Amino acid sequence: MSTHTTKHVNTQNGGTLLEIQHLQKAFGGNQAVNDVSFSLQAGELLALIGPNGAGKSTTFNLVNGQLAPDSGSITLGGVSLLSRKPHELWHMGVSRTFQMAQIFGSLTVTENVQMALLSADGQSLSPWQRAAHYRCADALQLLEQVQLDTQAHRPCNALAYGDVKRLELAMALANAPRLLLMDEPTAGMAPDERHALMALTRRLVNQRGLAVLFTEHSMDVVFEYADRVLVMARGALIAQGAPAQVKADPQVQAVYFGRGKTFGGSP
Ligand code: ADP
Ligand code: MG
């Protein structure tokens, strides 16, 4: 294992931000993640794909601190992320898209972002206060970034599904993250909405130098927007590289298209 002596973290101009080495996680006798290693640069959009049960969510939950690995290392800018609570990770600049459950339907779009800003600032709201006066300009700026500013004053329960996803993204940006994790962000979306959300994510990566790791079940959006693609099957990383390269990989094709076929000669 290498030791890191740098005191400050350089995340500018595509330095390695997230480094994952030899990650292992088993559930009983089921090796859900088997010796997975990869890295992620600042300003990079990295897709983790693979069929159901491949180990994507488990890998994802190891990175976001919901699960502890059996072995292996995860570092952000050279600092270990292991054994840290989700709120600690959040303050280190690791964010993930909020699930709908964390959105308050009766509050406006802006107020939900303000709740996320409060939380990012370590503040909690007294029952008699409203979030409505908290960092209004910053909340609006976040909404502009996800192109939701025109809906700012609508209650969330009146939003279309695609707009809820944009709101989740705005809320995930409230702590000015270096690393954003998205587990199947486009699940349940129509093709148009999927493309719009990924195009937006792409722009945020470019504009903010954000590093994004996202898992995806379907392949279409991945190859259009990701800088790099990791493919998992049965717990192991079977391919990684540029989208075109991964798409042409025979092992990847077998996993996705070769149902029932086995690969002569491959382990
Ligand atoms: P994916 O997200 O690629 O569909 P998962 O990471 O959810 O795959 O699952 C990988 C494997 O680990 C599967 O065989 C799944 O059944 C198993 N698994 C996932 N989470 C748990 C858990 N909490 N307890 C037991 N087995 C699990
Ligand atoms: Mg999953």
Total number of helices: 9
Number of domains: 2
Sketch the topology as an H/E string, one letter per element.
EEEHEEHEHHHEHEHEEHH
The order of strands across the largest sheet is: 6-7-8-3-9-10
Largest sheet entry = 6 strands, mixed
- pLDDT < 50 stretches: 1-13, 260-267
CATH class of the largest domain: Alpha Beta
What is the radius of gyration?
19 Å
Give the helix/strand class: alpha/beta
Quaternary organization: single chain
Q: Please tell me the overall pLDDT.
A: 86
Instruction: Report the bound ligands by name, code or SMILES.
Output: adenosine-5'-diphosphate, magnesium ion
Binned strand content = 15-25%
CATH superfamily of the largest domain: P-loop containing nucleotide triphosphate hydrolases
Principal-axes shape call: globular
What is the CATH architecture descriptor of the largest domain? 3-Layer(aba) Sandwich
Please name the CATH topology of the largest domain. Answer: Rossmann fold
Q: How many strand units?
A: 10
Helix content: 25-40%
Keywords:
10 strands, binds magnesium ion, 267 residues, 2 domains, disordered C terminus, binds adenosine-5'-diphosphate, Rossmann fold, single chain, alpha/beta, 9 helices, 4-stranded antiparallel beta sheet
